[in-house]
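Example 3.2
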Amino acid sequence: MSARNSHTTADYIEWDKCINCIHRLFKDGDYRMSAYIACGIFMGLRVSDLRQLRWNQLMGEQTIEVIEKKTKKRRIIKLNSDFQKHIKDCYQALKVENPNEHCFLSQKKTVFSTQRLNIKLKEINKKYRLGVKNMSNHSLRKAFGRRIFDMASDTQKEMCLVKLSQVFGHSDISISRRYLGLQTQEILEAYDLLTF
Protein backbone atom coordinates (compact mmCIF):
# COMPACT_ATOMS: atom_id res chain seq x y z
CA MET A 1 0.00 0.00 0.00
CA SER A 2 1.35 3.41 -0.93
CA ALA A 3 1.23 6.65 0.98
CA ARG A 4 -1.65 8.97 0.23
CA ASN A 5 -1.03 11.39 -2.66
CA SER A 6 2.20 9.61 -3.59
CA HIS A 7 3.27 8.69 -7.11
CA THR A 8 3.87 4.95 -7.33
CA THR A 9 3.75 4.28 -11.07
CA ALA A 10 6.99 2.64 -12.18
CA ASP A 11 9.09 4.47 -14.73
CA TYR A 12 10.86 2.68 -17.55
CA ILE A 13 14.62 2.38 -17.83
CA GLU A 14 16.26 3.62 -21.01
CA TRP A 15 17.42 0.66 -23.11
CA ASP A 16 21.09 1.61 -23.35
CA LYS A 17 21.24 2.11 -19.57
CA CYS A 18 19.69 -1.34 -19.10
CA ILE A 19 22.23 -3.03 -21.36
CA ASN A 20 25.11 -1.19 -19.72
CA CYS A 21 23.79 -2.13 -16.26
CA ILE A 22 23.47 -5.81 -17.25
CA HIS A 23 27.12 -5.87 -18.35
CA ARG A 24 28.32 -4.00 -15.26
CA LEU A 25 26.41 -6.32 -12.91
CA PHE A 26 27.98 -9.31 -14.62
CA LYS A 27 31.45 -7.75 -14.43
CA ASP A 28 30.87 -7.04 -10.72
CA GLY A 29 29.87 -10.67 -10.08
CA ASP A 30 26.12 -10.12 -9.53
CA TYR A 31 25.21 -12.75 -12.11
CA ARG A 32 21.64 -13.38 -10.89
CA MET A 33 20.58 -9.76 -11.06
CA SER A 34 22.35 -9.39 -14.39
CA ALA A 35 20.27 -12.31 -15.68
CA TYR A 36 17.12 -11.00 -14.00
CA ILE A 37 17.30 -7.58 -15.64
CA ALA A 38 18.13 -9.21 -18.99
CA CYS A 39 15.09 -11.49 -18.68
CA GLY A 40 12.89 -8.55 -17.73
CA ILE A 41 13.81 -6.35 -20.67
CA PHE A 42 14.10 -9.07 -23.32
CA MET A 43 10.95 -10.99 -22.38
CA GLY A 44 8.56 -8.30 -21.11
CA LEU A 45 7.08 -10.59 -18.46
CA ARG A 46 5.56 -9.58 -15.14
CA VAL A 47 7.64 -10.26 -12.04
CA SER A 48 5.33 -13.15 -11.06
CA ASP A 49 6.27 -14.90 -14.31
CA LEU A 50 9.97 -13.98 -14.18
CA ARG A 51 10.22 -15.51 -10.70
CA GLN A 52 9.04 -18.87 -12.07
CA LEU A 53 11.69 -19.14 -14.81
CA ARG A 54 14.08 -22.06 -14.77
CA TRP A 55 17.50 -22.19 -16.43
CA ASN A 56 16.57 -25.02 -18.81
CA GLN A 57 13.73 -22.89 -20.25
CA LEU A 58 16.13 -20.13 -21.26
CA MET A 59 18.86 -22.15 -22.92
CA GLY A 60 18.67 -24.11 -26.12
CA GLU A 61 15.27 -23.46 -27.66
CA GLN A 62 14.58 -20.24 -29.57
CA THR A 63 11.12 -19.88 -28.07
CA ILE A 64 9.55 -20.64 -24.72
CA GLU A 65 5.95 -21.00 -23.69
CA VAL A 66 4.73 -19.33 -20.52
CA ILE A 67 1.31 -19.50 -18.91
CA GLU A 68 1.02 -16.06 -17.36
CA LYS A 69 0.25 -16.26 -13.68
CA LYS A 70 -2.01 -13.19 -13.61
CA THR A 71 -4.06 -13.78 -16.76
CA LYS A 72 -3.68 -17.57 -17.15
CA LYS A 73 -3.05 -16.88 -20.84
CA ARG A 74 -0.52 -18.81 -22.89
CA ARG A 75 2.29 -16.70 -24.27
CA ILE A 76 5.06 -17.72 -26.64
CA ILE A 77 8.26 -15.69 -26.37
CA LYS A 78 11.05 -15.65 -28.91
CA LEU A 79 14.47 -15.57 -27.27
CA ASN A 80 17.11 -13.32 -28.78
CA SER A 81 20.40 -15.15 -29.47
CA ASP A 82 22.54 -12.47 -27.74
CA PHE A 83 20.23 -12.68 -24.73
CA GLN A 84 20.60 -16.48 -24.64
CA LYS A 85 24.39 -16.19 -24.78
CA HIS A 86 24.30 -13.85 -21.78
CA ILE A 87 22.02 -16.21 -19.87
CA LYS A 88 24.40 -19.10 -20.60
CA ASP A 89 27.32 -16.97 -19.34
CA CYS A 90 25.40 -16.23 -16.11
CA TYR A 91 24.48 -19.92 -15.73
CA GLN A 92 28.13 -20.95 -16.06
CA ALA A 93 29.42 -18.16 -13.79
CA LEU A 94 26.94 -19.23 -11.08
CA LYS A 95 28.07 -22.85 -11.48
CA VAL A 96 24.46 -24.05 -11.52
CA GLU A 97 24.36 -27.80 -10.97
CA ASN A 98 20.69 -28.42 -11.71
CA PRO A 99 19.40 -26.86 -14.97
CA ASN A 100 15.83 -27.36 -13.71
CA GLU A 101 16.38 -25.01 -10.75
CA HIS A 102 14.72 -21.60 -10.63
CA CYS A 103 16.91 -18.83 -12.01
CA PHE A 104 16.42 -16.25 -9.28
CA LEU A 105 17.32 -17.92 -6.01
CA SER A 106 18.55 -16.27 -2.85
CA GLN A 107 21.56 -17.57 -0.90
CA LYS A 108 19.06 -19.62 1.10
CA LYS A 109 18.02 -21.34 -2.17
CA THR A 110 14.51 -19.87 -2.14
CA VAL A 111 13.07 -17.87 -5.03
CA PHE A 112 13.44 -14.13 -4.43
CA SER A 113 10.19 -12.49 -3.37
CA THR A 114 8.75 -9.66 -5.46
CA GLN A 115 9.49 -7.27 -2.60
CA ARG A 116 13.13 -8.40 -2.36
CA LEU A 117 13.59 -7.98 -6.10
CA ASN A 118 12.14 -4.46 -5.86
CA ILE A 119 14.61 -3.62 -3.09
CA LYS A 120 17.51 -5.02 -5.12
CA LEU A 121 16.45 -3.01 -8.18
CA LYS A 122 16.26 0.20 -6.14
CA GLU A 123 19.78 -0.52 -4.83
CA ILE A 124 21.02 -1.13 -8.39
CA ASN A 125 19.34 2.07 -9.57
CA LYS A 126 21.24 4.04 -6.93
CA LYS A 127 24.58 2.19 -7.20
CA TYR A 128 24.77 2.33 -11.01
CA ARG A 129 23.16 5.79 -11.28
CA LEU A 130 20.44 4.71 -13.68
CA GLY A 131 18.42 7.83 -12.89
CA VAL A 132 15.04 6.08 -12.75
CA LYS A 133 12.74 8.09 -10.52
CA ASN A 134 10.33 5.26 -9.60
CA MET A 135 12.22 1.99 -10.07
CA SER A 136 10.53 -1.36 -9.59
CA ASN A 137 10.14 -4.74 -11.25
CA HIS A 138 7.62 -3.16 -13.58
CA SER A 139 10.33 -0.82 -14.89
CA LEU A 140 11.83 -3.77 -16.78
CA ARG A 141 8.56 -4.67 -18.50
CA LYS A 142 8.11 -1.04 -19.48
CA ALA A 143 11.68 -0.87 -20.82
CA PHE A 144 10.81 -3.83 -23.08
CA GLY A 145 7.73 -2.03 -24.41
CA ARG A 146 9.44 1.33 -24.86
CA ARG A 147 12.32 -0.25 -26.77
CA ILE A 148 9.96 -1.94 -29.21
CA PHE A 149 7.95 1.26 -29.65
CA ASP A 150 11.06 3.44 -30.06
CA MET A 151 12.54 1.09 -32.68
CA ALA A 152 9.42 1.24 -34.86
CA SER A 153 9.44 3.72 -37.73
CA ASP A 154 7.08 6.68 -37.50
CA THR A 155 4.70 5.01 -39.93
CA GLN A 156 4.67 1.81 -37.85
CA LYS A 157 4.13 3.35 -34.37
CA GLU A 158 0.37 2.75 -34.23
CA MET A 159 0.71 -0.86 -35.47
CA CYS A 160 3.46 -1.32 -32.90
CA LEU A 161 1.08 -0.16 -30.16
CA VAL A 162 -1.51 -2.68 -31.39
CA LYS A 163 1.07 -5.48 -31.11
CA LEU A 164 2.26 -4.30 -27.70
CA SER A 165 -1.32 -4.13 -26.41
CA GLN A 166 -1.66 -7.80 -27.39
CA VAL A 167 1.64 -8.73 -25.71
CA PHE A 168 0.70 -6.85 -22.53
CA GLY A 169 -2.90 -8.05 -22.57
CA HIS A 170 -4.32 -4.52 -22.73
CA SER A 171 -7.85 -4.14 -24.06
CA ASP A 172 -7.04 -0.96 -25.99
CA ILE A 173 -3.97 0.78 -27.40
CA SER A 174 -4.77 3.87 -25.34
CA ILE A 175 -4.00 1.77 -22.24
CA SER A 176 -0.68 0.72 -23.77
CA ARG A 177 0.08 4.34 -24.66
CA ARG A 178 -0.54 5.43 -21.06
CA TYR A 179 1.30 2.36 -19.67
CA LEU A 180 4.44 3.21 -21.64
CA GLY A 181 4.30 6.87 -20.58
CA LEU A 182 3.69 8.02 -24.14
CA GLN A 183 0.56 9.95 -23.27
CA THR A 184 2.39 12.04 -20.66
CA GLN A 185 5.32 12.57 -23.05
CA GLU A 186 2.99 13.74 -25.82
CA ILE A 187 1.19 16.14 -23.49
CA LEU A 188 4.48 17.63 -22.31
CA GLU A 189 5.65 18.02 -25.92
CA ALA A 190 2.54 20.11 -26.61
CA TYR A 191 3.97 22.81 -24.34
CA ASP A 192 7.01 23.03 -26.61
CA LEU A 193 4.73 24.28 -29.40
CA LEU A 194 4.15 27.55 -27.55
CA THR A 195 6.23 30.59 -28.44
CA PHE A 196 6.71 33.92 -26.71
